[in-house]
């Protein structure tokens, strides 16, 4: 998807909730901040699994197999309580604030090594050289993936998100992923290691009701949530920061502003375009718009985060802004489980780049920067930069 903020400005003229044709028919789009908060925070009236609205006799049967096409959707992001509660509890322990903060020295080491590798070149694509490898190294080390296979996970992650690429068909890529993860699962059952895949396999064997399908889907989700959001946080944030030289100078001179700046980057140019679809569990009215039971409801996070009713000069970047209300990682029970890790990686990434490459700037016209063609994520294909 190209940068869509102009389109959202046009939407806003019609109110915080609008109805348009979508790929599922008539879809309700929520672009207002408070309205988005209402929908995302109400898991009883806005559910993820529309099949639960059908009579039991009409609901699809779950055979618990590692079906290719269900891998991208049949995970805890598409589950409602109590399944969502059970699945999230299994993985949340790996992303507690204490556990994440313990990774800081290793993340700093990775960031420094990456900059060491390209510092002498004078120019580079910051996505390929830094924004991608930093989080993919971290999540692969957490999962227990060998270093030589990291690039495969980037391709597979893009396949799950529907990002167009020329490296193979959707079915082919997901088949490769299932075969690879299947082999890792077999190995971890026989020889558990101190990694996240071993922990998930072990939880299944302890009777925590993690089915084979859920195991594959959870690993797929962690690959995406564990690195894609951070790639886009670093890439998008640095791209917009370099277009506000006075803000970059301020953040470089006052590094203690970094925590608030990360929230502002997420608000202004967040890594996720829109939340995954909800469905109205009953007839409901929001801001005068009547939503019938079963209607798809999509919250556009990018638009909600620039709501002028919440933020003054919402279209402008301000690293001193109090942007703690931003919803770039969602809200409610489906709030991104990897958000603490993404924030820490972003914090270390921006500090390191600004400190070591103080003359960093975009190479070429910022208006020519191209965003990936995907409905959910919001990220750059490339970010060419140069420095003295």
Biggest pleated sheet: 5 strands, mixed
> Which percent band covers the strand fraction?
5-15%
Low-confidence stretches: none
* Span of the ends, CA to CA: 33 Å
Order of helices and strands: HEEHEHHHHEHHHHHHHHEEEEHHEE
Polypeptide structure, described:
There is one protein chain. The relative contact order is 0.19. Strands 1-2-8-5-3 form a 5-stranded mixed beta sheet, covered by helices on one side. A 3-stranded antiparallel beta sheet has the order 4-10-9. It has a two-stranded antiparallel ribbon with strand order 6-7. It has 16 helices and 10 strands. The model has no long low-confidence stretch (mean pLDDT 88). Helix 6 crosses helix 8 and helix 8 packs antiparallel against helix 12. The protein is of the alpha+beta class.
Any descriptors?
388 residues, 3-stranded antiparallel β-sheet, 9% strand, alpha+beta
Topology, pairings included?
Elements: H1 5-12, E1 17-22, E2 25-30, H2 33-41, E3 46-47, H3 68-71, H4 83-92, H5 97-101, H6 104-118, E4 123-125, H7 126-131, H8 133-143, H9 150-161, H10 170-190, H11 196-205, H12 212-241, H13 245-253, H14 258-269, E5 278-280, E6 284-286, E7 289-291, E8 296-299, H15 301-304, H16 339-356, E9 361-362, E10 384-386
Parallel strand pairs: 2-8
Antiparallel strand pairs: 1-2, 3-5, 4-10, 5-8, 6-7, 9-10
In short:
This protein has 16 helices and ten strands.
